[in-house]
Amino acid sequence: MDKNQYGVHRTHCCVKHGCKYGDKDCPVVKGEIRQDYTCERCNYDGINSVDELFTNINILQITNDLFSLIDQWEGDTWSLKEDEKYLEYKEKLVKYIKSQSRYNI
Q1: I want to staple 13 with a disulfide (CB 3.0 to 4.6 A). Which of 6, 9, 18, 86 is the partner?
Q2: Residue 23 phi, psi (nearest 5)
């Protein structure tokens, strides 16, 4: 994409909700530039600033990465992903994160 077009994407597109113009190579969606404002859908989700948006995205990414690592780990004699306690705590953690968030996650 021509860098001269970055301005319209910076002010209208959203890393979470996508490109307002439907461009597959949107620099905001691809993470090449940071958006200046939240989008309309962010506002409906209760996200009031770009900092809140990125905090929300970072929490989700960290949680997904943590679960991915835990799912890959295996102990000496048992697989963590088959352990009932792990599944129970994983579910509780997801519910807790959702309950503490003002965002639609």
Answers
A1: 9
A2: -75, 130
